[in-house]
# Entry
Amino acid sequence: MGTPFWEMLCIRELSSLVSSCKPFNAMNTRIRIFAVLLLASTSAFAANPRHPERSFWLPDAYFAQVGAAEKATNAYTVGATWNWNWNRRFRFGLVTGYTEATVGRWETEINGGQDSNWFTQVGITPVLRLYPPLGDNRWFAEVGIGANYISPAYQTDGKRFSTEFNFGDHAAFGRILGDHRQASVALRIQHFSNGGIDAPNPGENFAQLRYSHQF
# Structure
């Protein structure tokens, strides 16, 4: 069987990104990686039904997540994930993926802690996950780039986003839990910014803890 079109596209795009990662290309880099991951997830879903007896729209897992940023901002997030019907085994481990949908609420202190503002975040993110060939095959690492809508535009005492649309990039590591691998816990670092669409674009970084479970 030949290499699927989207995999060849991923290889070509990622190779080109390595040689073109310059500050003024930051927005294009994010858009291109997001587009490649989105294409990968679409192709993986379209290949074959993940579970023929289940509805296409039924998630494979649900999660709850808490996070904190450097500017006195806390984030509370829930969401769902859909596993891709795709995986590849390499010398460095097994690579697979999933797509997640999130809804979150951010609270940040303003006026020196006297008041607070609330923001709503909605996002969709294609994610690549790696299971390295170590131990009991329960540890994993992952990366993803997603599209997010944050309303109203995020603002703290020290920074202000210029757009409600933002990218969300994350890296994480975690462990599968349970006798039937029905749960997982992960530590994540996620960066939100608009990729240079408009200025100012200070970005915000969150440290996050996520718990996921299959029902």
